Amino acid sequence: MDGYADLHLHTTYSDGVFTPEQLLKKVSEVGISAISITDHDSVDGYIQALKYLDKYNIQLIPGIELSCIENGKEIHLLGYNIDPDNKILKNHLQDFRNGRYKRAEQILQKLKNLQRPVNFSLVLEKAGEAPITRPHIAMAMTELGYTSNLKEAFVLYLGDDKPAYVSKANFSIERGIKLINQSGGLAVLAHPARMIQPDTLYKLIKSGLDGIEIIHPTHDLATQKYYQSIASQYWLLETGGSDFHGNREYDEENLGKFIVPLSTVESIKIHSVR
Ligand SMILES: [Zn+2]
Ligand SMILES: [Zn+2]
Asked: 191 C-alpha to center of ligand 1: Å?
């Protein structure tokens, strides 16, 4: 499988279970030669991975998966070949982290009022290197025996409109596209089938979207073809990857199967500003 890339992977710096080095080892074992680590709202995993590229002989493209909000719903935007040292990007990521920290405090206050106290330090422990998200709180709740699993924690307490829900800070996908472009990178809509209505997609293309993720475990062949036709109609970049986290169903089988040719990596490099 030499000459292929997986452009959507997560590490312990967001919600993945493998460290950047462990991830590099895993992808090299399945024969992938180029990757992008696209942690949620963090470039720290990318920076860590740089140390091990020679050891595993992997080409690494700077990447990120930004959390954006559109009509109250979360939409994910991939950023490729961004400059991880860009000031505007760094400020946004710090603001994001601070916002998630405050939100977690508010959720814990609500849980306390519901007679389900959770210690903040336990949530921090679950988050590790990553910005705090609801699954980290759900893990803490499950460990404390309030719920039997993460899903139940969402259904009973943490899900949208449930009693301990606190809304996320509003960061529109247009702002996300602009931020990625300002950081020298290309903005690619992640797994559109999971998240987006056709109207919204056309709006984003008008706002300067650079590409669409075509290859993804949630896209069957018909879905791939559908988005491919839109991408070629509007001259958008077509990307793909496994969205590997290491702890999801079929993750291990998917690694090495959701790939794009190395020419996609070359296109990213040619078309990004840097
Ligand atoms: Zn995503
Ligand atoms: Zn992802």
From this structure: 7
